[in-house]
Amino acid sequence: MTTTGFRRTVVAIGVCASLAVSATACGPGDSGSANGTTRITVNCEPPRSARLDRRFFEEDVAAFEEHHPDIDVVAHDAFPCQDPKTFDAKLAGGRMEDVFYTYFTDARHVVDVHQAADLTPYLKELKSYGSIQKQLRDIYTVDGKVYGIPRTGYSMGLIYNRALFREAGLDPDRPPATWDEVRAAAKRIAALGDGTVGYADYSAQNQGGWHFTAELYSQGGDVVGTDGKKATVDTPEGRAVLENLHAMRWTDDSMGSKQLLVINDVQQMMGSGKLGMYLAAPDNIPILVKEKGGSYQDLALAPMPGGEGTLIGGDGYMFDKHDTPAQIRAGLKWLDHMFLTPGKGFLGDYARARKHGAPVGLPEPRLFTGAADAVDQRAKKAAANVPVHNYQAFLDGSHKLRMKIEPPHAQQIYSVLDGTVSAVLTKKDADIDRLLQEASGKIDSILARS
């Protein structure tokens, strides 16, 4: 979700920002090799304003070049890591870096416009590839060919306040697992009074549509059919999402009277200790503590209620179609060093992160499986400085859920669904059937135009 920060890059200390065109970038006709040295341009270097992240990134690049003296890495930075306003223009103009950052939702588009190099013949040289979670690898796989390498992956869950759970007579070690349980818990928390809200949700700036999508996935539904041509929101699953929100808002009065909320509103409520639950990814927790006044001890995370599915986000790197074989091999080695070695590198050096006061021990991003995941989790646990037991339910339950990325044309669709969600939360007599029918028709029109 571009406008809210869900589609963001979580790094060892902060948020990675990047992407500027440099006069030194290799052009389509540049082999990137000279005097036995292979030169690659890469992006998503943290900006100079993020001094610690920038220093770590530069340290890691220098260490890589020391181990690979035949490779020269030229990093580019700007903000944000991938600006939608310039991304397509760079692709079309042949000005993309040799190794460039993408959100999961951009992968198919880059392939469709024929700007990505096919990495399939080189995968045997990427030692970490087989240890990356398959559902993340599949995002960059099109028609059996691999066009990108995941770097992070994270999913939506239920953030809740353990202190309010205890005060309301709820067990903070047994968070709600179904939407009925969410509703019941929200009602008890709201009954504490003094402005306390049981459950909050977004309903403006496309964020309501984004959360409707996450909640629909949790019910086992989908926004768009598998053929990508028709909306699938006017369904029992879609109706269940809206009926639940309507019941909490108007029957139980557990969502408060103030609506048309966006992410900052809800984070402020949670950080102030006046909110019981809301949906978010794990990267919200440090924000709630550092910027909103929350406490790591009070904040906990559970998997998405419903038990069916969850919305995932993440990012990775793709390679420019003009790259030479030598540049592709060099870029894969760089990714292995920087991001894909469990417990090490820019994202995995947890001891370094802890030393400089960054939170260590959050359940995501979690990229690996098997032995590689075990190594990474041991390193994270050894350096942990947050209450990892608060996230155990999320760890235990999330891997059982169906992982789904955002729908095609997400922002346009979210704009439609924003109106649907906001109507339910602001109008007691909202006609849910009519709202779903209208939303379905508008989404069909968006898909038809594409």
UniProtKB/TrEMBL annotation:
Extract the InterPro entries matched here. Answer: Bact_solute-bd_prot1 (IPR050490), SBP (IPR006059)
Instruction: Name the keywords, alphabetized.
Output: Signal
Q: Which residues form the signal peptide?
A: 1-23
Q: Which Gene3D superfamilies match?
A: Periplasmic binding protein-like II (3.40.190.10)
Q: What is this protein called?
A: Sugar ABC transporter substrate-binding protein
List the taxonomic lineage: Bacteria, Bacillati, Actinomycetota, Actinomycetes, Kitasatosporales
